[in-house]
Amino acid sequence: MSCRHYLVSGQVQGVFFRATAQETANALGLCGWVRNTGDDRVELVACGSEASLGELERWLRRGP
After folding, report:
1. Less crowded by CB within 10 Å, the N or C end of the chain?
2. Which domains are delineated in the chain?
3. Helices H, strands E: what count in the chain?
4. Catalytic pick from 36, 41, 61, 62?
């Protein structure tokens, strides 16, 4: 199992990005946490298989 840390910027607060990112990670079988930061970003830590982490990263780059 691997873990990765992400900081996502752009239009990510006030648009349910955090909740959708958590749902996406859960659907991929990942564990970890997601939170809004004080500087208008979303921070994530996700742990799981390399394949699932890769899928999450592609989703984060693409957005909901």
Report:
1. N
2. 2-62 (3.30.70.100)
3. 2, 3
4. 36
